[in-house]
Amino acid sequence: MNEAKGSLTRREFVGGMSTALAGALVVSGSDGPFPRGFLWGAATAAHQVEGNNLNSDEWVLEHLKPSIFAEPSGDACDHYHRYADDIALLAGLGFNTYRFSIEWARIEPEQGFFSRAELEHYRRMLAACHEHKLTPMVTFSHFTAPRWFAALGGWENPASVDLFARYAERAARHLGDQIGLATTFNEPNLPRLLGWLSFDISGGAAALLQQAARAVGSDRFGFFLFADAEKALANMIPAHERALAAMKSGPGSFPVGVSLAMADEQAAGPDSGRDEKRRSVYGAWLEAAGKSDFLGVQVYTRARVGKGKDLGPESGVELTQMGYEFWPEALEAVLRYSATQVRVPMYVTENGIGTEDDTRRIEYIRRAIAGVQNCLKAGIDVRGYIHWSLMDNYEWVFGYRPKFGLVSVDRQTQQRTLKPSARFLGDIARRNGS
Ligand code: BGC
Fold this sequence. Notes:
Strand 6, helix 14 and strand 7 form a beta-alpha-beta unit. The longest helix is centred in the middle third of the chain and has 20 residues. By secondary structure, the chain is an alpha/beta fold. It has an eight-stranded parallel β-barrel with strand order 1-2-3-4-5-6-7-8, surrounded by seven helices. Strands 9-10 form a two-stranded antiparallel sheet. The N terminus is likely disordered. The protein has 16 helices and ten strands. The protein is globular and about 55 Å long. The structure holds beta-D-glucopyranose. Beta-D-glucopyranose binds next to loops.
């Protein structure tokens, strides 16, 4: 196990949690083939499920005309009001963990004004998790930020470091005693990663950002997904470190990590830029994760890396709704690679597939989890598998079309319907392994 230098032993790790949380770990399945206390969960992100995230940067972008967003998020899954039922549903399926994000744009809707009422909302969500014996894993920033922050230039502005640290400190002070684990950022390595992709999600982004700046009465508008990769990196690394220190200063005592967007990078051709890509996209963030309590690994597919660019799908390989190759084995490959790069424990914080065909989701999950099991057998320190996503939700620029959920959501009535994959993965969670 990678328990050596710089990482926590399992005992220190569990011992560092509040008694209530350690209790939640103990009741999790302990008879199955996976290690005792293994976390089994599903994830969401505030903007994608809560609905009406009015004060966020993303809300502004979604409502511009024309917009590169397929549709606005609107009510999303109304998780803001329905969280109690959703959390009960997740627990009832057999899971022991819920990964969700708290929304900065709600907590600090105007610069310097922190809403106690919104912080209390997230306290109630945490309480609901504990009531159902779910360990809450809280993401402090999942892509979105307040619109005032965007009007200051977002992550491209060096002031973002202090601003994020202050928000993280306030939120941790209010919520820390109830948090099970936390990550500062979700996929902060994305801006650099997007530069390697074979397709472009940011076409038209520059014009959109100018339009957004005018809409908020500023000369700039910075949004994470379209940020200048170098400027964002220079600010987000210290922002992560400062936020981590704030979370560590209490109340509560919970492991803090960072989760990265990763793919099974495969060298294609003699002049493949695979190693250069790994250095550029993962290097600084793996180093930051190595100095944190854990690394969150988020994997959807493989990437065939050519010279300076991914080559895109190989002909003949099945594609998912996102146009990714159906490649569940990517998870094992990424965990094995990451284990050579960091000495801290790892959690799979996202893994999943956009598809209308739930039988393919089940097959994907089955093979991905077999990969996790292979890693455990090889002595790699993986401590949880959290599926993306609990329910079909708002997939950013692509709108509601891609279906990543274990649970479907009726867009008119908000009615939740379990897909067979929800029971399939829930049963694995209950048995603590396949
Ligand atoms: C993100 C999620 C997103 C998922 C599926 C991840 O990059 O963290 O917000 O919905 O992938 O595309």
